[in-house]
Amino acid sequence: MKHLLLTVAIAGLLTAASRADTYQLTDENTKITFVGTKKDGKHEGGFKKVKGTATAEDGKVESLKLEVEITTASLYSDDEKLTGHLSTGDFFDIKTYPKIKFASTKVEKDDKAYKVTGKLTLRGKTKEINFPAEIGTAGSLKLNSTFTIDRTAFGMTYGKGKIDNEVAITVAINAKN
Q: Which residue of 20, 32, 167, 177 has the lowest C-beta tally within 10 Å?
């Protein structure tokens, strides 16, 4: 009986010592948009279907783990013809690569903001990226970030020299657990 009580007490201490807040990321609370530029202007777009999870131990931002999956067929832009072209093999190739994935590996404080590091898989290529983010975990998860990626690193070389290689990405999460 003493062994059973000790086991229950230890399990209770472990549960009390570490509590994980888990947030479900959905199309409703997670927005991922992009801006592509060229010499004579820019185009805006994003994705309508996003899902994933975010977990923070004891609400600590530095322990945050993000796993995000984007459905490439949910792609949209500010021009219907462009949306069709972005769906092809010149860009996202949505038939061959139906998902974009991101999994964080580290979150650390960097001067005024946090820096999120992780692996981005786009068009079958996985690259480590990092980006600055404003993150809060008081009662809900709020993450806001704008950063750039080099589209050519993921095999999007169409229009090289006419379309800028750097694409601005904006991520906005406001999830309650």
A: 20
